[in-house]
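Reopening this ticket.

The earlier resolution said the output was attached, but the attachment link was broken on my side. Pasting everything inline this time so it's all in one place.
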Amino acid sequence: MNGGFFVLSPDVGRYLDGDETVWEQQPMRALAREGELACYRHEGFWQTMNTLSERHLLEELWASGAPPWRTWA
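Inline output:
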């Protein structure tokens, strides 16, 4: 499972050959080879929202007034 996301320059299009390109194969390998990858490890709250029960959980956390992802007062 990929729990991350990518921030990409529009120039990344040069690594794509079309709709059939598998991002995790040639494009990522080329970017790694060229030293163009960086990462940030997030140590805070993270929760998927792939199912209705996960949506309900997140809505309950939000309704509590103190969701764990809230960083503002």
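Reporter confirms the inline version is readable. Helices lie at 26-33, 52-63. The CA atoms of residues 16 and 27 lie 7 Å apart.
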